[in-house]
Design a protein that fits this description.
With 201 residues, the protein is an all-alpha fold. The protein has one domain: Helical scaffold and wing domains of SecA, CATH 1.10.3060. It is built from 8 helices and no strands. Helix 4 packs across helix 5.
Length: 201
């Protein structure tokens, strides 16, 4: 049953890698994960209060700049420092980030080049986090048996925690993909990466 958990996760990751390697259009994927990533960042702030007057603006600015770079709505908000609805600010930031994604095509030279960048970046993010995840799941399996002594079913605990770790990995993949696509500069070698055969794990 332990192996079943990893097999399910491996199949999901391999399916995602195949879509990248087969040249599927990933632009809609980025258009989905950018709003989701912004919502994840702002959730910590909005859950405390919808009024930005109670937010840690320095922490907010640092987290958004790290992932998305400078966004007009954020810069305007930080200049004015006037309280407003957190949900309204979130909508403005999402719009800015999506516009920034589209502007990347011009900066990189074409939509085709942006598409190459989207594939290269997602493949790198998936591979990196998946390898780390395999190690973490091995560590979990080694330690989970000890919990039988505490009246916990090891298999149930492994499935539950493994699912949570897999979800956390996917969120990390998305955040890395967003961060990198906003800063991408492709070399000739990187343009070939998206055509390589998949690695075997």
């Amino acid at each position: 049953e332990y192996d079943d958990v990893m097999n399910i996760q491996r199949n999901l990751i391999y399916r995602q890698r195949r879509e990248v390697l087969e040249g599927h259009d990933l632009h809609p994927y980025y258009q989905r994960i950018i709003p989701a990533t912004m919502e994840t960042i702002l959730a910590d702030f909005i859950s405390g209060s919808d009024s930005t007057s109670e937010w840690d603006l320095e922490a907010l600015s640092t987290r958004i700049m790290d992932l998305f770079g400078p966004l007009p709505s954020l810069e305007s908000f930080l200049r004015k420092r006037e309280p407003e609805s957190g949900l309204l600010l979130q909508d403005l930031l999402i719009q800015d980030a999506l516009e920034r994604l589209e502007a990347r095509a011009m900066e990189l030279g074409s939509m085709e080049t942006l598409g190459v960048a989207e594939r290269v970046i997602l493949l790198q993010a998936v591979d990196s986090h998946w390898m780390d995840h395999i190690d973490l799941m091995d560590d979990l399996r080694d330690s989970i048996g000890m919990r039988g002594y505490a009246q916990h079913d090891p298999v149930v605990e492994y499935k539950r925690e493994g699912f949570e770790m897999f979800e956390a990995m996917n969120e990390a993949i998305q955040m890395d993909a967003v961060r990198m696509i906003m800063r991408a500069r492709l070399t000739g070698e990187e343009k070939q990466t998206s055509r390589h055969e998949p690695k075997r794990f």
